[in-house]
Write a structure and sequence with these properties.
The chain is of the alpha+beta class. It is 26% helix and 26% strand. The strands form four sheets. Strands 1, 4, 11, 12 and 13 form a five-stranded mixed β-sheet that branches. A five-stranded mixed β-sheet has the order 5-14-10-6-7. Strands 2-3 form a two-stranded antiparallel ribbon. The longest helix has 26 residues, at 103-128. It starts with a helix and ends in a 5-residue tail after the last strand.
Length: 309
């Protein structure tokens, strides 16, 4: 239900605070490079990996011909669908809102957050779906079994699987906040800390032990209940862990586990539109983004499934 005059104009309200719950940190845009494209849909080329790793060069005798070889190409497509959400800023709401409420900013932040949450959810599904990647495994012992598990060995298995089939070293690791809460207390990490003082494993500790420089902690929440129902919160990022090699930036001839193809609209990769809706005596505020998240190197990602109970 949209706010009414009585919802917005609150008697004796404090003038220095308002309370709004929002996800503190989204990580989706940090995982796969965003490729700005000129067309909503198109094709991109894929070089056949095996052609580049085949050892075919040979000695050439004086006056003789060199051996010849070549490579083949395939292609794939993207289609950047628009993801959008709008809300109404009613004339009555705007005209009667207390000064502490900047309702136009609140509405803009609200719809923008919806777009970011959808992107986060889609990138999580892309990363943690085992069918998207050539390799995955489930640890023999869960990482919260501190006596028997070996999380560093599990991560090394993923790193080796990627490097042994692509020649690329893993450079990104994603784990949910509840996974990190268990892992940071694992004796395997704590035993590598200095023996004096308080031993506290950090992300830098994990970076040093795995050799992976980019480690992201997914902490976003999503309410899966319908509007008007009792809220039901769950974590966007699952109990799986993703390890992969991702290009530092979009580039030709550069392998990457994935890219996010983005088709700018109105000159913006992600933006907000606003227009007058006289039928509702309101301004309509709409956030939008046109994109397609794509696995572009299935051999460059690895999922460790359900690493904690």
């Amino acid at each position: 239900m949209l706010p009414t005059h009585n919802d917005v104009h609150i008697d004796q309200i404090m003038t220095n605070i308002s309370i709004a719950y929002r996800n503190g940190m989204y990580i989706a845009e940090q995982i796969f490079p965003m490729v700005s494209v000129k067309k909503q849909s198109d094709r991109y080329y894929i070089f056949t990996k095996g052609d580049w790793f085949r050892n075919t060069a040979q000695k050439r005798a004086p006056g003789g011909r060199s051996e010849g070889s070549g490579f083949t190409l395939s292609s794939d497509t993207y289609y950047c669908e628009e993801v959008a959400e709008h809300t109404l800023l009613e004339d009555e709401t705007r005209d009667n809102a207390d000064s502490v409420l900047n309702y136009e900013t609140n509405k803009t932040n609200f719809v923008t957050d919806k777009i970011l949450l959808e992107l986060e959810t889609r990138i999580e599904a892309m990363c943690m779906t085992t069918g998207n990647w050539d390799n995955s495994s489930t640890p023999t012992n869960l990482w919260d079994d501190y006596d028997n598990s070996d999380p560093l060995a599990d991560i090394e298995t993923a790193i080796e699987a990627i490097e042994s089939t692509s020649g690329k070293m893993a450079n990104k690791l994603i784990l949910a906040n509840n996974v990190w809460k268990k892992l940071k207390h694992h004796p395997q990490l704590l035993d590598r800390m200095p023996v004096t003082g308080l031993r506290t494993a950090t992300i830098d500790t994990l970076k040093a032990l795995t050799g992976i420089d980019n480690i992201y902690i997914g902490s976003s929440l999503v309410n899966t209940a319908d509007m008007g129902q009792t809220a039901s919160y769950s974590r966007v990022w699952s109990k799986d862990v993703w390890v992969g090699h991702v290009a530092s930036a979009p580039a030709l001839d550069t392998p990457s586990a994935g890219y996010t193809f983005v088709w700018p609209r109105d000159g913006q990769i992600r933006g907000v539109r606003r227009w007058r809706d006289e039928d509702h005596h309101s301004d309509k505020i709409e956030a939008f983004m046109c994109y397609d998240e794509k696995v572009t190197g299935s051999d460059l990602g690895y999922v460790l499934e359900a690493v904690i109970a």
